[in-house]
């Protein structure tokens, strides 16, 4: 058994920011970060557009950013949370800059602010189209300087250790050696990110399997708003690949036009903001257009734009499109919507505290009330930074009292692990593919109760088969990961069945 003061599950912007702040303030306290892939593999790493922050009260205002967030959230945001997050933006931005993060500036030396869908002003700070990578690398660099932070890559959190509604840490497996260890912690922080890999097409990397939400749910935590999945309107369309390459919203902000095969800007008929309508509207419009036309994709036309400026702003997008055989200077980019972001998750208060004592959640795994029924573009990195700070401040004022693991948990949580046979691995991969296809076809952009119920039955069956297997001690982390994805799928279905009215990113047609 390992003991630590703060156990952080996940090394994206949320987990790393909290770790760095706590470690700097309390050099005598031990902070352990466990993360299932390479240390930087995360949704954070792939964020392109940037961080939405009000940096000038002359060209922009807090009130405008607040209103834009509330409009995107379709009446379901928590106003006090929205105000708190947005007003904290400038301080968190300064902190990021003090850790070495660079944001692009224009010729006059001011921030080069990007415009994105749903925003009424240019307010998105970016580092070319690699903002997440820049943030992740710069915070990681600081984390490595802290002697009291232990960062353990390729460690998978299997389950939380919870008794009598109190969290004592987590059970973890080292993916390479297959050794399991119990990490006993005074406080545990879930920073496990999103759920994209539960769907067939997602902008998220394969690590995004909703583990934190499933673990918290099994432990009895309150989970809310799982029906609000944000589908990004424009990922590069390819027949074969699953994890789709994102064409940032900022490309539309830069002036690209969304067209159907006939060259019509079909969005203008649906929303006067055209390409700059919020993501839910654009995704639903594309979905309808594709259903109507029977075509597999629509297109982003960038050919009329200033290509020198475009290439400078979006070097990764241009290079990747060219590598995929489409030069944006001459050809339209084929795009489709794909799962992108989960607005709901583990319910937390403004201190990031979940309904389980000593358990906190931060970043995409959490449901804070900021996003309501739909996230405003580039508000999520901001949310993670602000809540990491809130959790830090709150826990800095909490005494460290011994959070000794009850004997019952120590014994109960030590199953044997056996290596998986090839046959097992193939079966699991097949199951994952089936689950992803089911989620995309029946729990996608537009849902209906009949399909949701069919999906629920199938997933319940799969869950019970897998649970029986895991109870027989045939436990393997990949099995746990798929079980987590099924759990997340079931939560999305259950919450979608309960919601009766369409709003924000949620659309259900009952026929
Ligand atoms: C392509 C793309 C573009 C985006 N663009 C933007 C943007 O421009 N602006 C914006 O605000 N947001 C953007 N987002 C969303 C934003 O990047 C994420 O919401 C945010 O980075 C989430 O940070 P996080 O720290 O909560 O989670 P992540 O960065 O996803 O980190 C989660 C961590 O948890 C680890 N983990 C998961 N499960 C386990 C487990 N069982 N055991 C151990 N470790 C585990 C993962 O390995 C990872 O290290 C984008 C997302 C994507 C995918």
CATH fold annotation of the largest domain: FAD/NAD(P)-binding domain
**H and E order:** EHEEHHEHEEEEHEEHEHEHHEEEEHHHHH
Overall pLDDT confidence:
93
Low-confidence stretches: none
CATH-assigned homologous superfamily of the largest domain: FAD/NAD(P)-binding domain
Tell me the domain tally. Answer: 3
How far apart lie the N and C ends?
Answer: 54 Å
Major sheet characteristics = 7 strands, mixed
What is the CATH architecture annotation of the largest domain?
3-Layer(bba) Sandwich
Rg result: 22 Å
Helical run tally? 14
CATH class label of the largest domain? Alpha Beta
What is the beta-strand fraction? 15-25%
Question: Count of DSSP E strands?
Answer: 16
Helical proportion? 25-40%
Distinct ligands: flavin-adenine dinucleotide
Shape: globular
Structural class: alpha/beta
Q: What does this entry show, briefly?
A:
The protein has 14 helices and 16 strands.
């Amino acid at each position: 058994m390992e003991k630590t003061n703060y156990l952080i599950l996940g090394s994206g912007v949320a987990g790393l920011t909290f770790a760095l702040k706590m470690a700097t303030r309390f050099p005598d306290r031990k902070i352990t970060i466990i993360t299932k892939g390479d240390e930087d593999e995360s949704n954070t790493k792939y964020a392109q557009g940037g961080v939405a922050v009000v940096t000038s009260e002359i060209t922009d205002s807090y009130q405008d950013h607040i209103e834009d967030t509330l409009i995107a959230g379709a009446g379901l945001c928590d106003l006090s949370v929205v105000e708190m997050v947005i007003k904290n933006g400038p301080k968190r931005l300064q902190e990021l800059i003090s850790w070495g993060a660079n944001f692009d500036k224009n010729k006059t030396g001011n921030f080069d602010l990007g415009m994105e869908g749903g925003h009424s002003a240019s307010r998105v700070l970016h580092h070319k189209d690699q903002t997440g990578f820049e943030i992740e690398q710069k915070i990681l660099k600081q984390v490595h300087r802290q002697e009291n932070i232990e960062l353990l890559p390729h460690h998978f959190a299997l389950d939380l250790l919870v008794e009598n509604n109190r969290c004592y840490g987590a059970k973890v497996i080292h993916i390479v050696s297959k050794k399991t260890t119990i990490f006993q912690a005074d406080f545990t922080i879930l920073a496990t990110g999103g759920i994209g890999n539960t769907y067939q097409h997602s902008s998220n990397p394969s690590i995004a399997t909703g583990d934190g939400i499933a673990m918290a749910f099994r432990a009895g935590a309150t989970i809310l708003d799982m029906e609000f999945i944000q589908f990004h309107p424009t990922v590069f369309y390819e027949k074969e690949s699953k994890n789709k390459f994102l064409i940032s919203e900022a490309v539309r902000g830069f002036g690209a036009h969304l067209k159907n095969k006939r060259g019509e800007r079909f969005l203008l008929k649906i929303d006067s903001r055209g390409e700059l309508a919020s993501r839910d509207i654009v995704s639903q419009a594309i979905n309808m257009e594709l259903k109507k036309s029977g075509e597999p994709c629509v297109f982003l036309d960038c050919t009329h734009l200033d290509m020198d400026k475009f290439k400078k702003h979006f070097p990764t997008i241009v290079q990747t499109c060219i590598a995929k055989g489409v030069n944006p200077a001459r050809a339209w980019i084929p795009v489709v919507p794909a799962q992108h972001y989960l607005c709901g998750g583990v319910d937390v208060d403004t201190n990031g505290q979940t309904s389980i004592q000593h358990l906190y959640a931060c970043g995409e795994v959490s449901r804070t009330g900021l996003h309501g029924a739909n996230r405003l573009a580039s508000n999520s990195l901001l949310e993670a930074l602000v809540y990491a700070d809130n959790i830090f401040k709150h826990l800095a004022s909490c005494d460290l009292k011994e959070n000794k693991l009850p004997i019952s948990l120590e014994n109960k949580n030590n199953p044997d692990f056996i290596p998986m046979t090839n046959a097992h691995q193939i079966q699991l991969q097949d199951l994952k593919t089936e689950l992803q296809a089911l989620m995309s076809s029946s729990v996608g952009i537009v849902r209906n109760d009949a399909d949701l119920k069919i999906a629920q039955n199938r997933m319940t069956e799969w869950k019970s088969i897998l649970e029986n297997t895991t109870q027989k001690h045939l436990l393997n982390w990949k099995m746990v990961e798929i079980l987590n994805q099924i759990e997340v799928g079931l939560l999305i279905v259950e919450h979608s069945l309960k919601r009766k009215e369409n709003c924000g990113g949620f659309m259900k047609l009952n026929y």
